[in-house]
Amino acid sequence: MAYLIFSLSLLLIYIGLAQMLHVQFGLLGVPNFGVVGFWGLGMYSVGVMKVQLDMSFVDSMVLTAALVAVVSYVLGALILRLERQAILCATIAFSAIIALLAVTEKWMTMGVVGLGTIRQPFRIFGLEEILFFFFLLVLIIGVQVYLLKLHKSRLGRLMVAIRDNEELAASLGKNTFRVKIIAFTLTCTIMGVLGGLSAPLNQFLTPNMIVPSITFAVWISLVLGGKEHALGAMLGVFVTFGLFDILIETYAPVSPQFAVLVPNIKLFLYGALLVGVLVYRPKGFLGQSSKADEVLAVLGHGIAIIGSELCEAKNAISKGVDRALNGRKTEDDA
Amino acid sequence: MKLHMRNLTKAYHAHPVLNVKEASLGTHGVEGLIGPNGAGKSTLMGLLTRRIKPSTGTIKLEDGDVTHRLNLIRSHQVANLGLVKTNQRIQGFSSLTIRDNLRLAATSTIDETYRGVLDDDQVDEAIEAEIDRYLSQFSFADPDGFAKSGGEKKLLDILRCLILKPRMLLMDEPTAGLPDDITKEVMDLVGAKVEAGDMTVVIVEHDLDLIWKYCSYVHFLSEGEILFHGTPDDVKNNRVVAEKYMGV
Ligand SMILES: Nc1ncnc2c1ncn2[C@@H]1O[C@H](COP(=O)(O)OP(=O)(O)OP(=O)(O)O)[C@@H](O)[C@H]1O
Ligand SMILES: [Mg+2]
């Protein structure tokens, strides 16, 4: 049960990250490939403030938000006028720097030894985890409601226009750089806050948590779900993290000897799923339309397909592994 | 509104494409800017709206008593001063409907805020009424859908600029790709706005009949330099223009 709550809380964090990436890339066309950097900066910032400086959770969160805001504003000012490829490289580099600093700045981060323990903010015995989960849930639902409204708003229209043709938007009198840097700063700050909220979730921080695969997982989720759709981030994370990491890793009856295979198979299936979606639905499961019933239809359809594919894949794999193992056994016997 | 430029040059990779010693635009209502392909007409319009950075030279925008030095500002600020340009090559926002294109142009930036997202009422009656007026005058196959043909995109480009209520409008080959009847309608509307004193216009065109019909003053640009300017009759009878452009 505790593990389930932990997983679901993490799921919410991932949804939050994908929601922010949706605004950056889906609406504004800013390819932030350094998601894990902002998340990791926030997480370590809260960790250091709580463990080394013994600050309260609220104080550390507020200071962390301010810190990430300043960092992302400065980064944005440096890179947001550049071409998309350059933004992509610069953000990857940024996240690599953050990961490196977590290792090298031992006086703050304790380096590879790890930093802990960061306790839950809600100190009600036995309910800490579940309260924290509901806190995250409310937060993510709030963000989702805002995103749905953003899609219908004037600001949302302006963002899409900038994504489609920034120069043309500027020629209509829109200060496109200002729109981009404010949105980038805000969304990166929220990524940092989500990182800060991950600190008590993980309790013990090590530098190897800041790995590019988190960035990729968020990207894959968003692209799968539909990068331009208000609900794309949420659906994408359900399908990837929710289905694979929680349902399959936790509940699928995989015998222990194959358990080591699961993460690899997962990556393989992520990739296959991504290729499939990009080929058949380049704009993700949800595409662009925001009609609710169509969304539900596609959602149900998608889950059904993936479910059946997965069952087949699992059968095939377990058969194959069985055969391989049995084969080896007979060899051993001989 | 008037534009003054001085020693304005542009070179790409040390290859000069524009060199205007001194010129003024916007003093005669509707003006024409003509010249052979590659003369630098579009480059000049790009420089004037700050879409392209000049290699050297100054551009000043005179608005009544105030003079703005355009060298110091960015393209969106130029548009906000009232100097707007339509595009020769088709440009658009592929995910906005025709109506949303016009809404985007008509909406002021101060309404495009994060707080505003929470307001349920994102409709501005005055803007909607104005859009309806434009859409009843110029018919699109599906105004709530996307601009489909090149002609629709070109027309939308011009309407996007008009709805900004420019004080000075630069039109880069407005008729290329537009059917004749729509061209006439657009030009009549533009002419009426100039007549009413709402704006001044500079038109770049290869369709010389249109230039002679609507313009009261014409500038002739060739190989990056303004070689001649005068009334349509002066230009028509000028030897240099005839030699370099009219192909005689
Ligand atoms: N980005 C660029 N890089 C290099 N050369 C350019 C660039 N833009 C324009 N040029 C060159 O500058 C010259 C002027 O181009 P411009 O588009 O201003 O001509 P134009 O008078 O508008 O011609 P047209 O009537 O064909 O539209 C051309 O020789 C063109 O090749
Ligand atoms: Mg041109």
Q: Can you put this structure into words, describing what you see?
A:
The complex is a heterodimer of chains A (334) and B (248). Chain A is built from 14 helices and no strands. Chain A has 334 residues and is an all-alpha fold. Chain A has 2 domains: 2-216, no CATH class; 289-334. Chain A has helices at 2-27, 35-51, 57-79, 84-104, 106-109, 128-152, 154-164, 166-171, 176-202, 212-225, 232-251, 256-259, 262-280, 292-333. Chain B has a domain at 2-92 and 167-246: Rossmann fold (3-Layer(aba) Sandwich). Chain B is built from 9 helices and 10 strands. Chain B has helices at 41-48, 75-81, 98-106, 125-137, 150-162, 180-195, 208-214, 232-236, 239-244; strands spanning 2-12, 15-25, 30-34, 56-63, 66-69, 83-86, 168-172, 200-204, 217-222, 225-230. Chain B is globular and about 60 Å long. Chains A and B meet through helix 6, helix 7, helix 8 and helix 9 of A and helix 2 and helix 3 of B. Residues 41-42, 88, 172 of chain B line the site of magnesium ion.
Distance from N terminus to C terminus of chain B (CA atoms, Å) equals: 36 Å
Instruction: Report mean pLDDT of chain A, rounded to a whole number.
Output: 86
Helix content of chain A: over 70%
Task: Using a beta-carbon cutoff below 8 angstroms, give the protein chain pair with the largest interface and the number of residues from each chain.
Answer: A-B, 29 and 33 residues
Which molecules are bound besides the chains? Answer: adenosine-5'-triphosphate, magnesium ion
Strand order of the largest sheet of chain B: 6-7-8-3-9-10
CATH class of the domain at 2-92 and 167-246 in chain B: Alpha Beta
Brief digest:
The complex is a heterodimer of chains A (334) and B (248). Chain A is mainly alpha-helical and 334 residues long. Chain A contains 14 helices and no strands.
Describe the secondary structure blueprint for this structure.
The complex is a heterodimer of chains A (334) and B (248).
Chain A: H1 2-27, H2 35-51, H3 57-79, H4 84-104, H5 106-109, H6 128-152, H7 154-164, H8 166-171, H9 176-202, H10 212-225, H11 232-251, H12 256-259, H13 262-280, H14 292-333
Helix pairs in contact in A: 1-6, 1-9, 1-10, 1-11, 2-3, 2-4, 2-9, 3-9, 10-11, 11-13
Chain B: E1 2-12, E2 15-25, E3 30-34, H1 41-48, E4 56-63, E5 66-69, H2 75-81, E6 83-86, H3 98-106, H4 125-137, H5 150-162, E7 168-172, H6 180-195, E8 200-204, H7 208-214, E9 217-222, E10 225-230, H8 232-236, H9 239-244
Parallel strand pairs in B: 3-8, 3-9, 6-7, 7-8
Antiparallel strand pairs in B: 1-2, 1-4, 4-5, 9-10
